[in-house]
Amino acid sequence: MSEKLMTEIHKLDDKGIAKAAKLLRKGETVSFPTETVYGLGADATSDTAVAKIYEAKGRPSFNPLIVHVPNIKSVEKYAILSLMGQKLADTFWPGALTLVLKLKPNSKISKLVSAGLDTVAIRMPAHGGARDLLRASDLPIAAPSANASGKLSPSEALHVKQSLDGRIPLILDGGACAVGLESTIIDVSGDQPALLRPGGVAAEAIEAMLGCKLLRADTDDTAPKSPGMLSSHYAPVSKIRLNAEDVQNDETLIGFGNVKNANLNLSENGDTTEAAANLFRILHEADKIASGKIAISPIPNAGLGLAINDRLKRAAAPRPNE
Ligand code: AMP
Ligand code: MG
Fold first, then answer.
1. Which of 90, 138, 166, 228 is the Cys-Cys partner for 196 at CB 3.0 to 4.6 Å?
2. Of the candidates 216, 249, 269, which is a domain's last residue?
């Protein structure tokens, strides 16, 4: 954890928004209200800014985050809006609906946001203050709920303060959130739309609009096994060996700290926040240059090391067809 911050609560007015936008552009985190819950936002195009979200929340694992945008134009900058996605956006945006879309090739969205996947979850919020902040910062903002890991989602600024005091610089206070429920998440990146999480927009309303049933992993046995769950974990093609103190000839070594013969390094300074920021980018790079085997130096279970090790353990686990 980096040094303790003073957490300011500022009213959600022009001055507060200007302050928040400036912090976001500097790569800091800011909590702001949306119509669902208070989010903890950061520049979705910056690996280090997104790593700060995980650091502040103390999340023990990396789940992909929802990116908030002010308009359709900014969706199209980063992702491919499928025909179904377009229809849903036309009907339900702005609002409590999140769409999982294919990332554009070379999209500037941080790989930490999508946890290394080739899809990204995007939402256009309806909350006036959230929209003002998106416009003022001129950034796509990655934002999970603004609570410490394992705590309830906050629907008031005071809840955020109680949970994250000293860990973030600013909370914009816009009063209580109207919906208080999380957004509905629909995956429209494939051929058939799938409900990944029920939420503020009813699944029936979405089915009526699309004129077809949504795949539901929880109730539908014939549905491909939990599309959301399965696809929400990126796994490299190469075999992964963890806690490697040495490296074999046929391995590509990802180092952590002062490792002389590393091909790539998560953080030469041994900083777990920097390593988290680099994690998915470096895994992708290693997968490209490796001839099938990747070794990774030990990473301490401190700070974001816990979440990094959690993700690496899953990446190293045998695949179902092995
Ligand atoms: P939260 O930010 O706490 O509202 O949670 C975000 C939810 O969106 C999590 O359940 C993620 O698994 C899901 N999510 C985000 N991005 C993706 C994605 N690319 N594919 C599948 N699920 C996603
Ligand atoms: Mg949450």
1. 228
2. 216
Between the CA of 287 and the centroid of ligand 2 the distance, in Å, is 31
Ligand nearest to the CA of 186: 1
Asked whether residue 267 is assigned to any structural domain, the reply reads: yes
Residue where one domain finishes, among candidates 185, 216, 247: 216
Quick check: 76 and 12 in contact, CB under 8 A? Answer: no
Give yes or no for residue 250 having a pLDDT over 70.
Answer: yes
Q: How far is the CA of 253 from the centre of ligand 2 (A)?
A: 34
pTM greater than the 0.85 cutoff: yes
> How many structural domains compose the chain?
2
Ligand 1, pocket residues at CB < 6 Å: 63-66, 100, 114, 117, 119-121, 144-145, 182, 185, 196-197, 228, 231-232
- Longest Cα–Cα distance in the chain: 59
Residue written as token pair 């800091």: 28
Give the position of tokens 């999209």.
Answer: 107
Distance separating alpha carbons of residues 8 and 168, to the nearest angstrom: 8
The tokens describing 58, both together, are 């103390």
Boundaries of domain holding 126: 8-216
**44: pLDDT strictly greater than 60:** yes
Angle between helices 128-137 and 14-25 (to 10 degrees): 50
- CATH label of the domain that carries residue 96: 3.90.870.10
Same domain? For 174 and 301 the reply is no
Q: Please list, in sequence order, all residues whose beta carbon lies within 8 angstroms of the beta carbon of residue 20, skipping any fewer than 6 positions away.
A: 10, 30, 32, 133, 136, 137, 170, 172
Instruction: pLDDT band for 224, please (50, 70, 90 cuts).
Output: very low
Same domain, 27 and 108: yes
Q: Which atom of ligand 1 is nearest to the CA of 227?
A: 21
Same domain? For 18 and 136 the reply is yes
- Mutation choice for ligand 1 from 141, 197, 225, CB with most ligand atoms inside 8 A: 197
Q: In 10 A of CB 226, how many CB atoms?
A: 16
Q: Give the Å distance between the CA of 153 and the centre of ligand 2.
A: 5
Whether residue 23 sits in one domain with residue 144: yes
